[in-house]
Amino acid sequence: MARRYDHLRKKAVELRTQHNMTLEEIMEHLALPKTTIYYWIKDLPIPRTEKQTEAQKRLSENKRVRYARLREAAYQEGIEQAPELLQDPTFRDFVVLYMAEGYKRDRNAASIVNSDPHIIRLAHYWIQKLTAKQPVYSLQYHVDHDTEELKTFWGKQLSIEPSSIKLIRKSNSGKLAGRNFRAVNGLLTILVLDTYFRARLQAWMDIVKSQW
Description:
It contains 8 helices and 5 strands. The termini are far apart. Helices cover 58% and strands 11% of the residues. It has helices spanning 2-17, 23-30, 34-41, 50-85, 89-101, 117-130, 147-158, 195-210, and strands spanning 102-103, 110-114, 136-141, 165-169, 187-192.
């Protein structure tokens, strides 16, 4: 019995490495349980042939082009939306605020951080209005802060559940002895992962900047 399974194990390895078969294909070919074959070949990825590699490159390039076109379409949508949105002065305030304070290095995310409740409320209002994605909230705090009090404070400011705010201790929190951490309310970050909202936001920033 052991010799039989040894032969089958070698056959499974051969089918994997020389014939590029998948786990399911080997299972059907040898008529053995999937788990048995899995343990025999789990460390043997299917070798990529030159043809497969080129096919994967084409697929990757096609995806890149498709997503680039979607971002361009979102940017164009932002341009078309701008005249109506800019009739609201607070929208222009939000765009200028993001130009100054927002995170702009990631084309797939929009994020802004501040300690001023007025600024955060304005940003939160427009982010919620302009994207269907759920924002993620995090709060940077100092060791001397009452974190539950801070979460309650920001929860009321934004009308969100305090429990939805993730706490992040300030990296040099223990080195501020004798000094004051000026952000008495901590630093709240609002993050939304929305590539196409970020593309529209870029269009709005470009338009506002062109008007100066």
